[in-house]
Amino acid sequence: MIEKLNEKIKKTGAPIVVGLDPTLAHVPSHVCEKAFSEYGNTLEGAGEAVWQFNKAIVDAVYDLIPAVKPQIAMYEQFGIPGLVAFKKTVDYCHEKGLIVIGDVKRGDIGSTCEAYAAGHIGRVKVGDKEYCPFDEDFITVNPYLGSDGIKPFLNACRDNDRGIFVLVKTSNPSSGELQDLVCGEKTIYETVGAMVDQWGSGLMKGDYSEVGAVVGATYPEMGKALRAVMPRACILVPGYGAQGGKGADLVHFFNSDGLGAIINSSRGIIAAYKNEKYASYGEAAFADASRAAVLDMKEDIASALA
Question: What stretch of H or E contains 232?
Answer without folding.
Answer: none
